[in-house]
Specification:
Blueprint (H helix, E strand, L loop, with lengths): L12 H19 L6 H11 L1 H5 L2 H19 L7
């Protein structure tokens, strides 16, 4: 398992992150043209407006939901870190 726990092999955390980003891009580019960086999406959406601006909220809400979900999993000992 790739992770940041004490039993994780050194140097493998970046591999897990890289694979996750690659999968997100491979799948997402077919659907939306994918931009996983909210800062990169914000400027063009503001300038273009319309549908791009209407969907911008997801780039800020989805990471917040993920953070809360991970915090709850950690709090209830479902997710083990370290």
């Amino acid at each position: 398992m790739l992770g940041t726990g004490s039993d994780a092999g050194p140097g493998f955390v970046g591999l897990g992150i890289g694979i996750a980003l690659a999968v997100i891009h491979i799948v997402g580019i077919q659907v939306t043209g994918v931009a996983v960086n909210p800062a990169r999406s914000f400027g063009p959406a503001v300038l273009v407006g319309g549908q791009a601006l209407a969907q911008l909220w997801l780039f800020f809400v989805a990471p917040a939901i993920g953070a809360v979900l991970c915090a709850l999993l950690y709090r209830f000992k479902i997710l083990k870190v370290g």
